[in-house]
Amino acid sequence: MSRQHPQRAPWVERLLARHHPDRPDLTSRVNAVNDVAKTARALPYPAQVLRVIDGDTFLAKVPIWLGLDITVSVRLRGLDAPELRGPCPAQAQAAKDMLTELLAAGPVRLTDITHDKYASRIDALVWVGTGQDAGSLMAAAGLQKPCP
């Protein structure tokens, strides 16, 4: 059995071992694709904020190629703010207000982008105009769960 690549999904390993055990060229191509995908997730993507949904999610227009933009919901990585319709509406509104203020402070960049558990949004580190991570700033201000 071949040694598993640390970044490769187990199903990719099984597929390569089953169908192409003697094709190192295919393995190197798969490794190259994995490397490109890892690099793309780390690149900073500028984002135009369209609206703030709640204390940890906003809607953004993100250019992904020349003349090609996507509109996507972005969730702040590492922050879980109270829900607006949850048990702590005042704390939830304070989190939404702070996120609105942070995102309005200047250009917004997204890095470390991955799929969220919900298919229609992404998780990302969100860098605001001050050059700081919005999620860390909000956590430092105490605007995250729990609330009794």
TrEMBL record:
<dbReference type="InterPro" id="IPR035437">
    <property type="entry name" value="SNase_OB-fold_sf"/>
</dbReference>
<protein>
    <recommendedName>
        <fullName>TNase-like domain-containing protein</fullName>
    </recommendedName>
</protein>
